[in-house]
Please model this.
Amino acid sequence: MTATASDDGVPGVLRLGVTGATGRMGREVLAAAAERPAVEVVFAVARSPDERVAETDVDPDADLDALAVEREPHAVVDFTAPNPATRYAAACADAGVPFVTGTTGFDASQREALRAASESTPLLHAANFSRGVAVLDHLVAEAVRRLPGYDVELVETHHNGKRDAPSGTANRLVETIETTRSTGDGAPERVHGRAGDAPREPDEIGVHSVRAGSIAGEHELLLAGDGEDVTLTHRAGDRRIFAAGALDAAAWLAGRDPGWYDFAEVIEA
Ligand SMILES: NC(=O)C1=CN([C@@H]2O[C@H](COP(=O)(O)OP(=O)(O)OC[C@H]3O[C@@H](n4cnc5c(N)ncnc54)[C@H](OP(=O)(O)O)[C@@H]3O)[C@@H](O)[C@H]2O)C=CC1
Ligand SMILES: O=C(O)C1=N[C@H](C(=O)O)C[C@H](O)C1
Model:
């Protein structure tokens, strides 16, 4: 095990580093940390550190390698974009600092780089840090298992600033459906949106992304049979839930052995 949050002479206080401090989520994490007496922000970095956020000085992200050593964080929380997140994970791996990332939209080689970092430091990635979505994932698996042959369509709706589509949460839910539904002949086919002469095939999983306004995040799964349908919906009313989940994950991850961890382990702890 690496140093724990209670090994630094300040029992119970989590020394936290934050990346992407100027982003929508970075700001939420810093605001949430300021409200937790058991969290001390020891640094915050951003690409454009031109202001203080939640009364915290923001340093350039080029300083992260040095800060991760000098400030002795117990964990770093990251909500940025795939390229910087992969770079920050490698820096934390070099310094042996536990890394929590909620960033989404990684490609295969970036996912591989995160896995490689987790060989040197504890790393927890969650596409969604809401506890409700963790429960939704279980409910989706159960519903799909109990309703074989029902058509599956997933709609995710987010604010107009979101870059990646489908959302990381939608991808995770589709993986759950694929795992539950896959047969020896392979996984069901994903169909992203529909246009033109495009009738539905029986075993498709339809995936649809909506971007509008300031919506924090909605995921709705429709399971439709012959004469009935079931919908499972999660709505995030506020980004604070994601920040709270990420801070819980950071406190849980601090001091663990290097490896790859899942948010479900935090919730079940
Ligand atoms: N797991 C979860 O529960 C949640 C995950 N997310 C995910 O978190 C990520 C961030 O979301 P959000 O906060 O809304 O996004 P924002 O665009 O508001 O913030 C992104 C942050 O990353 C920085 N950044 C972007 N590109 C680079 C780069 N190339 N190099 C250095 N820094 C960079 C931005 O810097 P700058 O300010 O200079 O642009 C900013 O600080 C997304 O992947 C999103 O899907 C979001 C909410 C919840
Ligand atoms: O970008 C967002 O805002 C969100 N992104 C995550 C995702 O891609 O699933 C989680 C949440 O839905 C908000």
